[in-house]
Amino acid sequence: MNYVFFFLISFGIVVAAITGNIQSVTTAAIQSANSAIERIIQLMGIITLWLGLAKVAEKGGILRGLARALYPFIRWLFPSIPARHPAIQSILMNMSANILGLGSAATPFGLKAMEELQKLNQDPKTASEAMCTFLALNTSSLTIIPSTIIAIRLSLGSENPAEIISTTLLASATATITAVLLDFYFRKKNSARGDGHSI
Amino acid sequence: MINVFTAISQWAIPLFIFFTITISQFRGVKVFETFVEGAKEGIFLSIKLIPYILGVYVAFGILKESGALIFLLSFLSPIYQLLGIPVEIFPLMIVRPLSGPASLGITMDLLETYGPDSFIGRMASTIDGSTDTTLYIMTLYFGAVGVKNIRYALIVGLSADVMAFLSSVFFVKLIFGG
Question: Which residues have a Cβ under 8 Å from the Cβ of A25 and sit 6 or more positions away?
Fold first, then answer.
């Protein structure tokens, strides 16, 4: 991200200098900074609302309910984790939070899951199969309610801010299926070669 | 079929809110107190986002107003036309796996420029909503437990991202029309 940031700004200024448009850089910088603050103020309301609801969902066991529904799926995806191992619970909670678009609630569960998986790992410097599967699931992020995006759409005057729920669900499901299949392929390939990183 | 998806979109949030507060209430959770407790975190989170969004806004503001963005995109547009993806989405696709707040800034910028209900607006919304910060999560999660060799995890994660980009384009065209 540091390189991207550097490139965007320096390239912009160089182009402006060459095309004799240098005063536009000053105006653009100041105006963009102003409108960034305006946007955030508009977003604050909905981010706050959603995190309030997220807390209620967590305390009321909604996340745990969703986690229970996902249990068979997770058992099937992680054959190397023993039943009732605490890693399973953390993975389930992380996935449930991701599905509901509660990204900030997902991270602590995800880090806990990695700790538990590391306890099962035979070679602590190398990622285990279960870790790779978990990361594949996590980064492809199956999502039902992309709450932040809906908030932005609403603040910018969209006529139907939630209309992208369906396309988001379909696209993220495609990504998750791709990730699961690829992960399965690599796992099989490695075990066929008999390389020593089982579990 | 399209109506089913419209219905999912319309009902998802009301149902989520309804079931969350109703189930919690019956389980003896102090709903309002808990809500306020969580909402406090929302204020801090919004403030934490400010520097990220501001940085991206300024960088893109300079890039756009200087004419450099049009120059860059004109290079890439033949490839994108071939794939049927609007070239304006390109910056979002590059930044999305790297940083959540930064890609949120780009999405906001695209929605503001083209309108949230435009083709580009819907596509940017879908791409940002359906993917995650793959490189950031890998660094954070593997780094936290000291794993150095991440084997095939990165290639799986990035392939899933590319798949999400392409299917976002496909489904937005299918459901809303291109």
Answer: A12, A13, A16, B62, B65, B66
Residues of A in contact with B168 (CB under 8 A): 167, 171
Stated pTM of the model: 0.83
Q: How far is B43 from chain A (nearest CA, A)?
A: 6
Distances (CA, A) of A86 to A109, A136, B145: 11, 20, 16
A70 to chain B, minimum CA–CA distance in Å? 17
Distance, in Å, from the CA atom of A11 to the CA atom of B119, rounded to the nearest integer, reads 28
8 Å CB contact of A40 and B130? no
Confidence (pLDDT) at A87: 92
Give the model confidence (pLDDT) of B23-46 as tens digits. Answer: 999 999 999 999 999 888 888 878
| Residue in the block written with tokens 């984790």 | A81
The Cα–Cα gap between A112 and A85 comes to 12
Rounded to whole angstroms, how far apart are CA atoms B120 and B129? 14
The beta-carbon contacts of B139-145 under 8 Å, at least 24 apart in sequence, are: B140/A107, B140/A111, B141/A110, B141/A111, B141/A114, B141/A135, B141/A138, B142/A114, B142/A127, B142/A131, B142/A135, B144/A111, B144/A114, B144/A115, B145/A114, B145/A115, B145/A117, B145/A118, B145/A124
Residue A66's CB is within 10 A of a number of other CB atoms, namely: 18
Q: Give the integer Cα–Cα distance in Å for A11 and B45.
A: 31
Measured between alpha carbons, how far is A110 from B137 in angstroms, rounded to an integer?
A: 9
Q: Which of B19, B65, B130 sits opposite A171 (nearest CB)?
A: B130
CA distance A152 to A159: 12
Cα of A72 to nearest chain B Cα, Å: 23
User: Residue B98 above 70 pLDDT?
Assistant: yes
Compare B13 and A7 and report the one with higher pLDDT. Answer: A7
**Would you state the structure tokens that stand for residue A195, as one six-digit string?**
């390389």
